[in-house]
Automatic annotation (TrEMBL):
Species this chain originates from: Borrelia hermsii MTW
PROSITE patterns in UniProt: PROKAR_LIPOPROTEIN
Protein name: Lipoprotein
Keywords, sorted A to Z: Plasmid
Domain of life where this protein originates: Bacteria
Length: 272
């Protein structure tokens, strides 16, 4: 599945590059049309009229490309969601699908989905989730115990940052729902340029998500290897908990989501 996904992303990236080249040629064509109109209004009008079907066809193709990429992404997410949900190794409690009580209120989703969200954020890799579980077992959870507050803060931030990847992904799917895609297709404000821009942002979002998942897995694996040494383990986890490259990538995902939302709102405000 990973190889298939990589091939799709590479091919779609080539399509985006080709579309950018086409748009560049279209822009040059408009300049030439403007010059020719100085030689005769009738001739210029005729050429512009001939260009209308081409532009409409190109816009339709841009919508098709966007829809194709959205569908591919959602199919990928569905495969992840259905990937043996019942066999997920729970984060802390072996006898429950709930996260420990002390962390039940962190983050942005109901507590009964937290284990699954973290599982998805770690690339539905059971080995990595088990490694995370071994890391969490090194922390003190009771708030009245020594280091309890500090430990709860570290782990809460760790799980919160993992969860953000899933949260932003779900938000993106809502922003690019079938209803929104239909509104984009029928909107008078939709152009080849802004539709292609949404597709580009989506493509970048998907790449950023894949990179973050790999970063998370690398950090968790490294922390698990040194979990016997508390200082070294915390040093590894700080790559996710503290500000740094990973937090910047999470911020980039949010920025891409916001850019997509802004463009979708701009286009769908005017529906013909």
């Amino acid at each position: 599945m990973i190889v298939k996904r990589r091939d799709f992303m590479e091919r779609f990236g080539m399509v985006l590059c080709m579309l950018v080249l086409v748009l560049g040629c279209t822009a040059d064509g408009k300049v030439r049309d403007a010059v020719s109109m100085r030689d005769g209004r009738a001739k210029g009008f005729s050429r512009m009229s001939m260009l209308v079907p081409f532009l409409q066809k190109t816009r339709s193709k841009a919508c098709d490309d966007l829809k194709s990429l959205v569908e591919h992404f959602k199919e990928q997410l569905l495969e992840e969601h259905l990937s043996d949900i019942n066999g997920i190794p729970y984060l802390i409690d072996d006898n429950s699908d709930f996260i420990v009580r002390e962390l039940a209120d962190y983050g942005m989703v109901p507590k009964n989905t937290k284990s699954h969200d973290v599982y998805i954020a770690l690339g539905h890799d059971r080995g990595i989730v088990k490694a995370l579980k071994s890391i969490l077992s090194q922390f003190t959870w009771k708030v009245w115990a020594n280091e309890g507050d500090r430990d709860a803060r570290i782990v809460s931030l760790l799980l919160f940052n993992l969860e953000q990847v899933v949260y932003y992904t779900n938000s993106l799917c809502n922003s690019l729902s079938d209803e929104k895609l239909n509104e984009i297709r029928t909107s008078g404000a939709a152009t080849v340029e802004n539709i292609t821009q949404i597709t580009y942002y989506l493509f970048a979002f998907m790449q950023a998500r894949d990179e973050l998942i790999e970063d998370f897995k690398k950090v968790i694996s490294g922390a698990a290897l040194v979990r016997g040494n508390r200082l070294e383990m915390e040093s590894e986890l700080k790559k996710i908990v503290n500000d740094g490259k990973i937090k910047e990538k999470i911020g980039s995902m949010y920025s891409l989501l916001r850019d997509i939302d802004n463009l979708v709102d701009l286009i769908t405000k005017v529906v013909s």
